[in-house]
Amino acid sequence: MSETPASSLTATGALTAGSVKISGDGGDEIEAYLARPEGDARRGGVVVIHHLPGYDRATKEIVRRFAELGYDAICPNLYWREAPGAAADDAAAVARANGGIPDERLVGDVAGAAAHLRALPTSNGKVGVIGYCSGGRQSVLAACSTDVDAAVDCYGAFVTGTIPEGLPLKVTTLTDLLPQLRTPLLGLFGDDDSHPSPAEVDELTRILADNGKDFTKHSYPGAGHAFFAVDRPSYNAAAANDGWERITEFFGTHLTAAGS
Amino acid sequence: MCTYTTVKDTVDGSAKGPGGSWFHVTDVTVYFDHPVHAMAEHTLNIDFAAPDRGPAARVALELTADSARKLVAAIQEALDAVPLEMQV
């Protein structure tokens, strides 16, 4: 097989997609949604981390879009253990009632998803991670904690800032972990978002700059939280379109194997 | 905005849920966040659930903040009208 730039894999747009089982944190078997372009050309992989509302149809559309862009893409169902086989919204309700999912487990599940991608015969060894909303924070967490090659944070709250007192969700900021960031990071935010607020994004920018990390940030005027969500009133076409272009360029740079 | 704020409590009652069948609910979760279905950016969401019966044993409500306040007022008004001896 030859290495082929991701952009040239999309000529037909043909892909396959469906549920698979992967080995997650602690060797647990969990469900994941895998989408792959047709053909046997080598390419990078993308792990998609779903938002707090779960492993839903909109997230699976994002996974398929990455396949259409030329990547092997996978989204682990982070709520599989609590609610195997349940509808996405019911599973999310269980996870929320439980206070979310532990960070250690998230890291293990992302590592398992990345390993699954790297084991595919089409893998060039490179894997990026991207997450939305709560998954944005988890994408940064994964990039600080496990072996990935690039990370995208789409409006993840509580990466910096302070956790409100009494918050039932078991979440911490990542300020102590940020010096361990292993990969280039792309951050996409809305100026009108309050979780994360522009001040929290500025704090993230400052910490990463102080630690010499490769961080690129775009914050869109007129956009709030969840501007990529095509099925929500928060969708902002201008921000989402530009954001997709930034993501495509970023992964195109960092998920192409050396020498290709 | 994801507020992430979630209020949980136990309840004792019944709800008519998936498949049109009644079931005993034991738990309620209340939070203000993005809805799954309602066409509003944020809603007050209420899940009545029976965790012992699995994730699908759930009746969910997604109400705009104004609607949720009306519901609170309506519940309070209805309860206030009940004679004390009937409140058992």
From TrEMBL, chain A:
Phylogenetic classification of the source organism: Bacteria, Bacillati, Actinomycetota, Actinomycetes, Kitasatosporales
State the name under which the record lists this protein.
Answer: Dienelactone hydrolase family protein
> Where does the Dienelactone hydrolase domain start and stop, copy by copy?
30-254
The domain of life is Bacteria
InterPro entries annotated for this entry?
AB_hydrolase_fold, Dienelactn_hydro, Dienelactone_hydrolase-like
Question: What is the native source organism of this protein?
Answer: Actinacidiphila acididurans
* Keyword line: Hydrolase
Q: Which Pfam families match?
A: DLH
What molecular function terms (GO) are annotated for this protein? hydrolase activity
From TrEMBL, chain B:
Question: What InterPro entries has UniProt attached to this entry?
Answer: DUF6295
Pfam name, any one? DUF6295
Q: What is this protein called?
A: DUF3467 domain-containing protein
Q: Which organism is it from?
A: Actinacidiphila acididurans
